[in-house]
Amino acid sequence: MVKSVDRALTIISLVSKRKEGMGVTELAANLDLNKSSIFRLLSTLVDHGFIEQNPETKKYRLGYKYLELSSMLLESIDLRTQAKPFLEELESQFNEVIHLTVYDQGEVIYIEKLEGSETLRTHSQVGRRAPMHCTAVGKVILAHLPLNEIVDVIDKYGLPKHTEQTITDKDTFFKELGKIRNEGIGREVEENEPGVSCIAAPIFDNMKKITAAVSISGPSIRMTEERLAEIRPIIMDIGKKISMRLGYTDN
Amino acid sequence: MVKSVDRALTIISLVSKRKEGMGVTELAANLDLNKSSIFRLLSTLVDHGFIEQNPETKKYRLGYKYLELSSMLLESIDLRTQAKPFLEELESQFNEVIHLTVYDQGEVIYIEKLEGSETLRTHSQVGRRAPMHCTAVGKVILAHLPLNEIVDVIDKYGLPKHTEQTITDKDTFFKELGKIRNEGIGREVEENEPGVSCIAAPIFDNMKKITAAVSISGPSIRMTEERLAEIRPIIMDIGKKISMRLGYTDN
DNA sequence: AAAAATGTTGCGTATAAAGCAATAATAATG
DNA sequence: CATTATTATTGCTTTATACGCAACATTTTT
């Protein structure tokens, strides 16, 4: 561990949480370090474009570098490139919100989102993380992880309540994961956001490891039992097709 | 300048350019540093999520952290939030590709893009940079910068040819900027991409400084002189409205 | 199976980073 | 508007860390 690099990256994390940016003295107080040390770390981050100084307020904030790195990262994800045509197929067939997520350290991250043309406002956003216990994509990924990893995730994040429908009891939650393994898809009816339901299929990599999930979300009014039953075989098939594009084989 | 932070950030830049990631030995060769130094810098970046190691190939690549930082950055840009309804208005009125860009160190960066429903494939992408000399947004921003800054940008980037229409002669280019200042909008007819034309309006901040631009792009077949004349007053007005939302005043 | 290459680690030394104190710039107060 | 307070920035010395060496572990190539 390189201590000064650790400090610099911690500065980035702190600054990122403050929309209006942070000053030298505030960062020094937060990290219990000398202002001149903070100043020099910031200068180095500024030189590389990772941080910039607001000329008016003198406060330091995130630089545009992350937009570039983020778009380079998204472009480098094969899964996203391979999955795109399938996601567009789902969007055009069902005209609902389509998500593609990856699993990363106990959370899911949205790496693609197609919005359809119906006006459904969801909180999801490319780049953002989401909890696993109350999203269809999260539950379907958890259901295919080794038991010890499931336990680690639940220990780390718990089962916090998001709506009246959120499963917060551990035993019930494990039964739910069993059910999802059996059905092959994850369903979520208003567990994450009121009025929104979702169905998700798992995506496996060439080592047969669960790595991602694809989902369709819609208002519960439209996502009826009949509609979900109609979608189920199609999204399972799409999940399998995407997996095969990534080198997954059935045998 | 903190040397080890500088090295760490340089590693990020190098790794970001290689889709499949880079190994310790390769990075050490590139930077003429010891493998153990590289290894420790990478470990620190991995701990913070800025870099991750591909378990199969052992190579190091960009971590998902940039997706989060990028979306936090976009959310923190007031300009983008304030401009969004106006961009949607333009999109619904003209049904072409709408861009919002900011000026950053001699280049423009796309921070919002609405695609309309017509199928126009453009190379632009949120997060990506674009040259200033051959894009409407770039030219309209340059036209409103102080002369010394214009000279600096041209010295740094030159006027490289992108299409047969790209302006590559300095005198002609300065005349073009004069014309843009007079007209109040930037036009670009196939200077950046063959078959694509664009019209852009400037956006000023509360200190009356040029900071951004908004544009409409379409295939040259649709973006006729008549169409551009129709769009001109509307996009100028939109540019002004967005500027006023950011505290710009006319007097 | 052996050799080569790459990734990882322990340790001592040299270098860089940190903090102090001062200075410069900006903001707040009367 | 002048004075005071606060924050940002800088020169220099001291202290701690980062670096590189050499060796080891692991993986890949022959």
From TrEMBL, chains A, B:
Xref: InterPro entries: GAF-like_dom_sf, HTH_MetabolicPath_Reg, Tscrpt_reg_IclR_C, Tscrpt_reg_IclR_N, WH-like_DNA-bd_sf, WH_DNA-bd_sf
GO MF terms held by the record: DNA binding; DNA-binding transcription factor activity
Chain ranges of the HTH iclR-type domain: 2-64
Keywords annotated in UniProt: DNA-binding, Transcription, Transcription regulation
Keyword Cytoplasm: no
Cited Pfam families: HTH_IclR (PF09339), IclR_C (PF01614)
One GO BP: negative regulation of DNA-templated transcription
The keyword Transcription regulation appears for this protein: yes
SUPFAM superfamilies per the UniProt record, alphabetical: GAF domain-like, Winged helix' DNA-binding domain
PROSITE patterns for the chain: HTH_ICLR, ICLR_ED
IclR-ED domain boundaries: 65-248
Function of the molecule: May be an activator protein for the gylABX operon.
PANTHER family attached to this UniProt entry: HELIX-TURN-HELIX TRANSCRIPTIONAL REGULATOR, ICLR FAMILY, HTH-TYPE TRANSCRIPTIONAL REGULATOR RV1719
Annotated protein name in UniProt: Glycerol operon regulatory protein
Annotated organism of origin: Neobacillus massiliamazoniensis
